[in-house]
Amino acid sequence: MHKNKTTKQTYMFSSTFPLIFLLLLYLFGVPIWIIVLIGVWYFSLISLESAGLLDKIDATRILGFILMLRTKRGKNFLDRISSFKRFWKFFGEISIWMCLSVMALVVFVLLISAFSTVMSPRDEYIPASDVLFIPGVTSFVPFWWPVIALIVTLVIHEYSHGIQARVHGMRLKSFGLLLMGPLPLGAFAEPEQDEMARAPRRERMRLFAAGPSINIFATYFAVILLALVSTGLVANQEGIHIREIIDGEPAQEAGLKPYESIIQINGSDITDYSSFSSTLNDTSPGDEIVFKVLTFPEEDGLREEKEVSVILGDRFEHFNSICEQNNDYEKCMDFYGNPEPGKSFLGVDIAEDIVAAKRYSIILEGDFGILDRVVYTLVTPVIMLFEPMSLDGQTMIIEERQLLEVEGFFSETIGKENVLRIFDFLFWLVWVNFLLGFANLVPMVPFDGGHIVRDAVHSILRKISSKHPIKIENFANQISNYSSFFFLMIILVPLISPIFPW
What we know:
By secondary structure, the protein is α+β, with helices and mostly antiparallel strands. It contains 20 helices and 14 strands. It has helices at 2-27, 32-50, 53-56, 75-81, 85-119, 128-132, 144-167, 193-198, 201-230, 250-254, 273-281, 315-323, 329-335, 355-365, 370-390, 398-402, 409-413, 416-439, 448-464, 469-496, and strands at 59-62, 66-71, 172-180, 183-191, 233-235, 240-245, 261-265, 268-269, 288-294, 305-311, 313-314, 344-345, 348-351, 404-406. Helix 5 packs across helix 20 (469-496), helix 14 packs antiparallel against helix 15 (370-390) and helix 19 runs antiparallel to helix 20. The longest helix is centred in the first third of the chain and has 35 residues, at 85-119. Residues 1-13 have low confidence and may be disordered.
C-alpha cells in the first residue's frame, strides 16, 4: 500500500512539474515556439514510455520531460584508465583544494553581483533565454559549435567522476546523457548508490571535486591550443588597420572608414605603428595629408586602393572639449595624458595587427615575462566570457575575421576556413568548460560544490566536536540545506530585482 502511494505521488509530480515549468517559461518571456517544441517533446516521451520503447533502449523519463539515456559502452575503457590509482588519487586530492579555492572566488563573485544589483537594480528582467545559456536559444550562443563543445565538456566531466568512483572501489551501473530534444542538458556516471553512501567522505569529496576540476584544467588546455592556432592567423595586408572612427573628427569628415588599411601617408610606406606615429608626429593641426588605403574586402575578397585627403585637427581641442563636460577637468585631462596644443589629431582607433588573432597568440608569442604571461593566461577565459555577448554570438569581430589570413604550417596543410573552424570550436570549448566548471562549484546541492561543502563540513565537525556521529551528520546536512537555500536566493537576486523597489 505504501509503495503504491509513493508511486502515485511520484507520477503526479512527474506529470505536473513539466506543466508548471512550461507555465514559468511563458511567464518569463520565453518565445512561444520554444514552449511548443518542449511540449511536443514532453508528450512524445509519454507516448514512447507508454509503448515500452524507452525501456528497450534503457532510457528513463525524469522530471517529466528530461530523457535519461543510459549506455554501458566505455566502461572497459574507464577501467583501464582507472588502473593508474596513485595518479588519480593524487589528482583527486589536488582537485579538492582547487575546488575549495575556486569556490571561494565563486562565492565572492555571487555576493558582489547580488550587492551591486541591490545598490543599482535593473529596470528590466533578464530574458530567461539568456539566463539558461542554451545553444541556439540564448541570444549570444549559436547552436552547432557550442553544442559540440557542451557534449565534450559533459563527457569529460562525468568520466572524471567515474574514474574517481572506480579508483576508490565503487562500481558504476552506466554512463549516459540527459537530453531535452536534441539538446544535451547534462551527463551522468551512475554509481551504485549504496557503495557511494558507505564510502569515506574524503573519497566522496575527491569524486565530486574531480568533475569541476577536470573542466578547469580542460579550459586552460584549450586556451593554450587556441593560442597555438592563433599564431597562424595574420592580417592579410601589411600596414595599419583602422578599427574605429571617432564621430565628427578629421578622419570621418575625409571619408576614412572602419577596417580600411592605411598603407601610405604622403607617399611614405606605412608598415607598422612606429612608421605611422613618426609620420604623423611631423605634422601640425591644419595640415592636409594624403592617405593611401585599402578598402574593406568585397564579397569576392578583393580590396581596392584609394587616396583620401585629410585636414588634421588639434589633439588638445578634442580632449579639452570632452573634459570640459567632466566634473573633474584636471583628472580627465590626466587620464588622456595632458595633451599639449599644437599636436595633430586624426580621430581613429588603429591596430598594428588584427586584434582577434593576436589577443590569444600573445600567450605564446608575447614579449612580456613569464609571470605576466601566466596572469594573462589565467584571465583570458574571463575575457572570453563576454566576447559572444558583445558580438552577437561571434567569436571575433566579423570584419576582423575577413581581414585574416593563415600562414606557415596552417596555410600549407589546413587552409584558412578549416583553421577558423578549429578556432571557433576551441573558443567555445574554453567558454563552456570554464562556465560549467565554475557554475558547478556554487555551494548548493545538487551542484558538485554543494556536495563538497556538505562532506567538508561533516569532516571538520568530526574533528572539533565530540557529539554523536548521527547528530554531526544531521547538523552538516542542515548547514548544507541552509547554504543551498541562501545561494539560490543570491542567484535569483539579479533575476527578480525589477520586482522590488530596492
